[in-house]
User: Which sequence fits this backbone?
């Protein structure tokens, strides 16, 4: 764990995240995030966008991908309703020698190293926790750690964003926080071609036929204003594939098509709900009519 000293206080930095996340399609959204982070003059400051959308549309993936486009380290912090201000800044822990060790959060580690900090599901976090980041998100560009008794300034290359689900949040954030989290970038469900590419990228071992079934389900569900996401589709396809492999079946006939649709129907009811399974029930009926 890397260490750094600030005002004679030794901080242990968190490691950046190195995860397998690939953003596919909707390049304009990447451009919007990068534009928000751009600094165009000596007196300019980067913005701190919030990425808003339904669960599973790829908000975290977009933020992570944009951060890597800057060729900088990316630090992820998962917000919860129990997140405390010290969790966001510096946490004291007891070391092996019985002494207090100060551990910098992923946000503060990104500040110090000039990386990108992403707070995931930021609307799960209370106003008290967000208030501790208020000076970081305006022209002051610093945070204060009460437990360590130090002020920490952000590196000029530091960038920040948060993701927020477009649903009922645990906490209603006040205007002074929202005004700091700008611009708002909305991520909607992808188009059919992009959604199919996402499925193929995440399920390279899947037959095209099962992917077509799943993308047809997703697109039909989007048109019906259902909240089912491509992440749901990936999980449904993955479980149905496991069922197929477990039974040793292959897509070689109409009967296999029907069995695949049945497994998808089963997976959708287990992963989502009975409403989702009705979409695959209609596919099974279409296959029966083809016979």
Assistant:
């Amino acid at each position: 764990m890397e260490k750094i000293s600030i005002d004679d206080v030794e901080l242990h930095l968190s490691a950046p995240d190195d995860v397998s996340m690939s953003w596919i399609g909707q390049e304009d959204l990447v451009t919007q995030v990068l534009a928000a982070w751009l600094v165009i003059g000596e007196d300019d400051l980067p913005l701190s966008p919030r990425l808003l959308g339904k669960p599973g549309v790829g908000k975290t993936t977009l933020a992570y991908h944009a951060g890597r486009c800057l060729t900088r380290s990316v630090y992820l912090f998962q917000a919860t309703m129990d997140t405390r201000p010290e969790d966001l800044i510096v946490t004291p822990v007891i070391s092996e020698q019985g002494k207090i060790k100060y551990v910098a959060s992923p946000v503060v580690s990104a500040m110090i190293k000039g990386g990108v900090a992403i707070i995931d599901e930021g609307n799960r976090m209370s106003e008290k926790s967000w208030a501790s980041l208020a000076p970081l998100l305006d022209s002051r560009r610093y945070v204060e750690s009460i437990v360590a008794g130090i002020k920490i300034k952000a590196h000029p290359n530091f960038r920040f964003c948060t993701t927020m689900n477009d649903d009922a949040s645990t906490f209603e954030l006040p205007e002074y926080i929202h005004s700091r989290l700008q611009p708002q970038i909305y991520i909607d469900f992808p188009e059919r071609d992009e959604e199919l590419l996402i499925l193929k990228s995440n399920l390279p071992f899947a037959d095209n036929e099962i992917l077509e079934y799943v993308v047809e389900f997703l697109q039909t569900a989007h048109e019906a204003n259902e909240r089912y996401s491509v992440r749901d589709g990936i999980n449904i396809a993955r479980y149905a594939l496991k069922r197929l492999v477990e039974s040793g079946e292959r897509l070689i006939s109409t009967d296999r098509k029907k069995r695949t649709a049945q497994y998808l129907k089963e997976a959708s009811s287990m992963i989502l709900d009975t409403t989702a399974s009705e979409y695959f029930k209609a596919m099974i009926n279409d296959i029966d009519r083809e016979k």
In short: The radius of gyration is 23 Å. The chain has two domains: 3-187, 192-290. Residues 109 and 281 are 50 Å apart (CA to CA).
